[in-house]
Write a structure and sequence with these properties.
The complex is a heterodimer of chains A (276) and B (345). By secondary structure, chain A is an all-alpha fold. Chain A has one domain: MetI-like fold. Chain A is built from 13 helices and no strands. The two termini of chain A are 35 Å apart. With 345 residues, chain B is an alpha/beta fold. In chain B, the strands form two sheets. In chain B, strands 4, 5, 6, 7, 8, 10 and 11 form a seven-stranded mixed β-sheet that branches. In chain B, helix 2 links the parallel strand 1 and strand 2. Chain B is globular and about 65 Å long. Classes of the chains: A mainly alpha (276), B alpha/beta (345).
């Protein structure tokens, strides 16, 4: 029937993969689906069309997108510096990139709030410019960008390190400007990895709770993120309402990630063929 | 089928135990040599129970010869109640609100109806109340609840939707407005709206608000538990803040209860009940007062009288007809608190 692949053990490894994916990912998620059905369609609709819910969802996804875009540029810069240059202290910078992962999110939140609060070091400076960071939507973006930065750096860095400098030399010899080299030679190779990093950063930012509740101020309609609404529901023992909100976040996040995946596939098809 | 080795083991243990009890002096009820209790509590009681647990262990061992080890778990009151409902096998719970303890009955039938009548004084061996903490010298001249609704006064309180302590704050403010001469429901609503209009940051828990006020220097006044306020004034922000006691406040009664299903499962009912009852003893009450909770015992209270300001206190049952009603009217989805923010858009 089916042609045997070159690699052995396909059936076994696929089976184990499915089993683990099922137990660790799909089973808890289906629990969310089932639990939110307890609510009934009318209540469900009222919950997700509530202005406060909508404001929180807009804020969560909007801030996460902004943070992921920021990480995309800044993370690429860091990856570029780490991959292309040798300088004293490089090892230190390289190691510190991962710190946001290791730090408990509550600690990150407290630290960022101390820095960006009006009485803090950065907060006072921004205050002079008339910009409020902590206890405003901008603070949420800062916290999200902080916790998800490593994703972009760590996905772009190995690709940049693997990229043969001869390609750039060839482009230069053939008369390309620096910008043309970057856009036509480097970026196409980098794009799939960057998109992966972007998607990971976005997903991480959407789900972030621990650090944000410290820096956001949690004002309803203004700086209240969707995960906080979920916690609020749990606090009044409203499990069905909490899971319904979780379901909405899950679906929106899934659609976003799917779109990024498709974009990635498209970019691979378009650029992947004619390099390397 | 029970494996034979287990039966043999059980018989051996029983024989040994009966031998041991015959050998030991008081032959009374056969107790295991050591017992472990899990007390699931809320955040600010950490230091209180650290001291009390040691005192109770001494007392229990002196009385029965049995060693008792008490494990503590602390966290937000609601979160802790949910953990027990979801299967954390607590022998006793000591939470911030009766509403959260009652959730063990409502959601999972872990404790029977009428649990609050099983121990004296609504099962609350200590009480606390809500006071204000202001900056040194009280520059904004804050004296009573009414000042918190004034324009230009910035108020720090946690979010009542996520914090048990914040619910006490809110209810104390509400009831003050309602009980003023000429006060009514609409005026109370307006006052609460003005008060929360003055709140720039809604932290998720009481400790978060304390940090915002003391470390970030945000706000003119912090609404806080009395014990938390003492901690700030005498320890964390010594010399930088002072306490203001309002004309009336709420009597917060953090209740304690044994969790019937789990003490029966663990066979710890006797020691768990003694553990909670000892809170009412002179030694228990003394420890309570040392940690700035108001003791129930008149004698102990008299010894610490100067520490606790005299305030007109009302209970939640008197003022709101119990937690269930207060929760439904004010804090559930679409309740009065939610309406404050919905009417603002």
């Amino acid at each position: 029937m089916t042609r045997r692949g070159v690699l052995p053990g396909f059936g076994l490894s696929l089976g184990i993969s499915w089993l683990f994916l099922g137990l660790v990912v799909l089973l808890p998620l289906s629990g969310i689906f089932l639990r939110s059905f307890e609510l009934g369609w009318g209540d469900f609709w009222r919950l997700i069309s509530d202005p406060r819910t909508l404001a929180a969802l807009r804020l969560s996804f909007g801030a996460a997108l902004a943070a992921a875009v920021f990480d995309l540029f800044f993370g690429l810069l860091v990856a570029w510096v780490l991959a292309r240059y040798r300088f004293p202290g490089r090892g230190l910078v390289d190691a510190s990139v991962d710190l946001p992962f290791a730090l408990p999110t509550a600690v990150a939140g407290l630290t960022l709030t101390a820095l960006y609060a009006p009485s803090g070091l950065f907060g006072a400076a921004f205050g002079l410019l008339g910009i409020q960071v902590a206890f405003a939507p901008l603070g949420i973006v800062v916290a999200m960008a902080f916790v998800s930065l490593p994703f972009v750096v760590r996905t772009a860095q190995p690709v940049l390190e693997e990229l043969d400098p001869a390609l750039e030399e060839a482009a230069a010899v053939l008369g390309a400007t620096r910008w043309q080299t970057f856009r036509k030679v480097i970026l196409p190779n980098l794009l799939p990895a960057l998109l992966t990093g972007f998607a990971l950063a976005l997903a991480r930012a959407i789900g972030e709770y621990g650090s944000i509740v410290f820096i956001s101020g949690n004002m309803p309609m203004r700086t209240e993120i969707a995960p906080l609404l979920i916690v609020t529901r749990l606090e009044q023992y409203d499990y069905a309402g909490a899971t319904a909100l979780a379901l909405v976040m899950l679906v929106v996040a899934f659609v976003l990630l799917l779109a990024i995946n498709l974009l990635q596939r498209w970019s691979r098809k378009r650029h992947g063929a004619h390099v390397l | 089928m029970v494996p034979r080795i287990l039966i043999l083991g059980a018989v051996a243990v029983a024989v040994l135990a009966s031998e041991a009890s015959r050998a030991g002096e008081p032959p009374a009820p056969a107790r295991p040599e050591k017992v472990v209790l899990l007390n699931v509590s809320y955040d600010p009681t950490r230091e209180l129970y650290a001291e009390y647990d040691a005192a109770f262990a001494r007392h229990w061992e002196a009385q029965t010869g049995q060693k008792v080890e008490i494990k503590q778990s602390h966290g937000g009151s609601g979160k802790q109640a949910r953990a027990v409902i979801d299967g954390l096998e607590a022998d006793v719970v000591t939470l911030a609100l009766a509403w959260d303890v009652d959730a063990l009955r409502r959601e999972a039938e872990l404790i029977p109806e009428g649990w609050q009548q099983r121990l004296p004084q609504n099962s609350a061996p200590y009480t606390s109340t809500i006071v204000f903490v202001v900056r040194k010298g009280n520059p904004k001249q804050i004296r009573d609840w009414g000042d918190l609704g004034r324009e230009g006064v910035s108020v720090i309180t946690p979010n009542p939707k996520t914090s048990g302590g914040a619910r006490w704050n809110y209810l104390a403010a509400w009831h003050w407005a309602l009980e003023r001469p000429g006060g009514d429901e609409q005026k109370a609503r307006d006052f609460i709206a003005r008060l929360f209009g003055n709140v720039p940051v809604l932290d998720t828990g009481a400790r978060g608000s304390t940090t915002t006020f003391a470390e970030r220097n945000i706000g003119d006044v912090l609404i806080a538990w009395e014990n938390e306020a003492f901690l700030l004034e005498r320890d964390i922000a010594r010399g930088k803040v002072e306490i203001v006691v309002p004309s009336s406040s709420i009597l917060a009664e953090p209740p304690v209860a044994i969790v019937d299903r789990y003490v029966d499962k663990h066979g710890t009912r006797e020691v768990a009940e003694a553990y909670l009852r000892y809170l009412y003893s002179d030694e228990g009450q003394e420890i309570v007062a040392r940690h700035y909770y108001r003791p129930r015992s008149k004698r102990v209270m008299a010894r610490h009288a100067e520490q606790f300001a005299k305030v007109k206190l009302f209970t939640i049952d008197q003022a709101f007809g119990g937690w269930e009603q207060a929760q439904r009217k004010h804090f559930d989805t679409g309740g009065v608190f939610d309406q404050l923010y919905e009417s603002k858009r």
